[in-house]
Amino acid sequence: DTAVSQTPKYLVTQMGNDKSIKCEQNLGHDTMYWYKQDSKKFLKIMFSYNNKELIINETVPNRFSPKSPDKAHLNLHINSLELGDSAVYFCASSQAIPSWEGPSSYEQYFGPGTRLTVT
Amino acid sequence: AQKITQTQPGMFVQEKEAVTLDCTYDTSDPSYGLFWYKQPSSGEMIFLIYQGSYDQQNATEGRYSLNFQKARKSANLVISASQLGDSAMYFCAMREVISSGSARQLTFGSGTQLTVLP
Asked: Can you tell me the distance from the alpha carbon of B111 to that of A65, in angstroms, rounded to the nearest whole number?
């Protein structure tokens, strides 16, 4: 069974369009994430989200917005796509870590990635 | 300043030999976790091994071990008896204990591309 799934796997679109990438996890995790991997393979956190809070990386343009219909899903909406948005986008999930707890071995489970190409 | 530094963009190793992939980190938080992930050419991210800042012993998982030197702030990954299937990009990552709740983010290094030669 797939733990973290993303659709679509490939997305080719034109500048200015609005698109969404869907993410679903069946692990019962409370926390989900979106990462962007650029052409140099550098992975950068975009959002962290659980039932209570959304943490946004301050460098993410507000054209990007996460939307979570329920705790098993965290979709990524992108408005007015730009050439620089071309990248691989990864969804991930992990168990929530109580705030009083120190470092946790709860690893993040990643989806297969969505390769977005903006032309 | 980079929080996670991987100074080896590419490494080569002969099959069946051991290889060490370097990772240094920077944090003022006394409580943190260090992770290694593997990304083969197919693109998925695979968790390999974890080391907590308070762990007394170096982590091991099968052929993977972590050479954790806290004073030097290094967490090098050692792969023993390399196999052709180990050829992939390897990422070191850190989770810090941030104040804003349970959504603990990972900060990744730039990765090391490992090629195992037959």
From this structure: 27
Of B56, B53, B39, B54, residue with least CA distance to B92: B39
Indicate yes or no: CB of A97 within 8 angstroms of CB of B102: yes
Both tokens assigned to A38: 């650029």
Q: Are B53 and B111 in contact (CB under 8 A)?
A: no
Nearest CB to A103 within list B33, B45, B108:
B33
Residue B36 sits at the chain A interface (C-beta within 8 Å): no
Query: What are the tens digits of pLDDT across the range B55-98?
Result: 889 999 999 999 999 999 999 999 999 999 999 999 999 987 65
Please count the other Cβ atoms lying within 10 Å of the Cβ belonging to residue A115.
16
Task: Identify the CA nearest to A76 among candidates A113, A51, A106.
Answer: A113
- For the range B61-66, what are the long-range contacts, defined as Cβ-Cβ under 8 Å and sequence gap of 24 or more? B64/B36, B66/B34, B66/B36
Tell whether the torsion through CA atoms of B29, B92, A33 and A11 is positive or negative.
Answer: positive
B71 with B23: CB under 8 angstroms?
Answer: no
